[in-house]
Amino acid sequence: MRYSISDIRDMKSKKEKILMVTAYDYATARLVEEAGIHSILVGDSLGMVVLGYESTIPVTIDEMLHHTRAVVRGTKRALVVGDMPFMTYTVSVESALRNAARFIQEGGCQTVKLEGGETVAETVRRIVSCGIPVCGHIGLTPQSVNALGYKIQGKTAAAAEKLINDAVSLDQAGAYSVVLECVPSELARLISEKISIPTIGIGAGSHTDGQIQVIHDVLGYYETAPKHAKKFANLGEIIKKAVGDYVAETKNGAFPTEKQSFSMDESLLKGLGCCQPPECK
């Protein structure tokens, strides 16, 4: 049975860390679930780490649904969260409801995530009232990169107060959790203490109720990673070495060996007029 939003909320009261990563495909989703992850975000970060876009903004809902379905197929226990992409929940409440429903009906995930605080609170309230759980996202919101840039949020008194109000608004609107991205650790602690729902940090220090990281940063796919990330492996180098070894062994004839080859009955080869070892007949 999958983790539910009630399970995630209970972890806050039990002071049990909520473990969350992104995943975008069947194989990765299966592996991270087996490693003990509670929840998987199919993030619109796939635009940058999988599809090669410069930001998350070009990502479409059809691209998100394609990857969400793959992650759902690869999991049995993890709570799967579909990330609603740019402009799919801000044009109107009605369009937000339709698009959120697509994630549940077509994507097969259990919850959706959207960016924003007070400005989207009423939309969150309506989506939740229709039976679709919502995870909020405040602080550095990548879909607003053209307005905010990639920088720490909440460093002034006014900005910090706004983030607190945003978190309270999402809590009151019925969100079951909220991602805090790139905010000062002390502010993340204040928000976590002030609201009833779990906070999931990324670049927000250790005082949040859980942590989320982009799986490509965790595995070290790329040479560089954000300051808030830690490479727990160097998969990029491992992949390059493995493929390099394959290239070299194929060129020099070391691969494939007899072990990787299939044989055919010699009598059949004779019937085809083929050469037979050790010499042609």
Describe the structure.
It is a single chain. The chain is an alpha/beta fold and about 280 residues long. It has 2 domains: about 5-235, Phosphoenolpyruvate-binding domains (TIM Barrel); about 240-270, no CATH class. It has 12 helices and 8 strands. An 8-stranded parallel barrel has the order 1-2-3-4-5-6-7-8, surrounded by 7 helices. Helix 9 links the parallel strand 6 (about 175-180) and strand 7 (about 200). Helix 2 packs across helix 4 and helix 8 (about 155-175) packs parallel to helix 9 (about 185-195). The longest helix is centred in the C-terminal third of the chain and has 18 residues, at about 235-250. It is elongated. The N and C termini lie far apart (about 65 Å). The model has no long low-confidence stretch (mean pLDDT about 95).
Secondary-structure blueprint:
Blueprint: H1 5-13, E1 18-22, H2 26-34, E2 39-42, H3 46-49, H4 61-73, E3 79-83, H5 93-107, E4 111-113, H6 121-129, E5 134-139, H7 145-148, H8 157-173, E6 177-181, H9 185-194, E7 199-202, E8 210-213, H10 215-219, H11 235-252, H12 266-271
Parallel strand pairs: 1-2, 1-8, 2-3, 3-4, 4-5, 5-6, 6-7, 7-8
Helix pairs in contact: 2-4, 4-5, 5-6, 6-8, 8-9
